[in-house]
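User: I'm new to structure prediction. If I give you an amino acid sequence, what do you actually give back? Let's try with this one:
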Amino acid sequence: FSFSFSFLGIIRHVGIGHLFLNTICQLKLGAAIEQISGFWKMAIMYLMSGIGGNIIASVVDSTSFSCGSSSAIYGLIGVDIVDLLQTWQLETDHKKIILSLIPQLILILGIGTLPWFDNFAHLGGFFIGIISGYAFLPYLHFGDRDRIAKILVSRSARIGTFVLFLVLFILFYIVNDPSTLCTQCKYLNCIPWTEGFCDSVWT
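Assistant: Good question. You get back a string of structure tokens that encode the predicted 3D arrangement of the chain. For your 203 residues, that looks like this:
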């Protein structure tokens, strides 16, 4: 796994069906975020999530070989959640939103616990999407105190993003045995619902 694969993995797909599904997801999520933030900021958040998610996957599991833009798509989901949180005061039916959002998060994050998906890339992209959302999304403010708080959060998120990628870059080249970093992390990538269910991933 070379560093270039963290980018190439975003544009490489395993077939027409895989490409079609990812394209639909990107159009649905990306178009809405692009309307809010503009093309360039959306592109930055997309690429950061995709590349960062794939690097996290390779650091945690050196045998990881991500294929497809799922890490970037999960990043856009994270960005979308940040946008929801930043406009929370404008929403009227909070209970309905929460009851709708929780099952969706359980589903999209739970899919990655099956052996056919790289959940390290999914979770990594989702996490970086949240950070980049705070860093680059435009925000509404409700009073001077709220404006100052959101400016501080945005600038802190930008610094945090830079530090995170620096650390990941260093870990990428110095970690020889990723399993020593977290012995139980394999359960984030695959849950053995039945005996031998995750053998293809863990061996």
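You can read the tokens as a compact description of the fold. Here is one thing that stands out. The mean pLDDT is 79.
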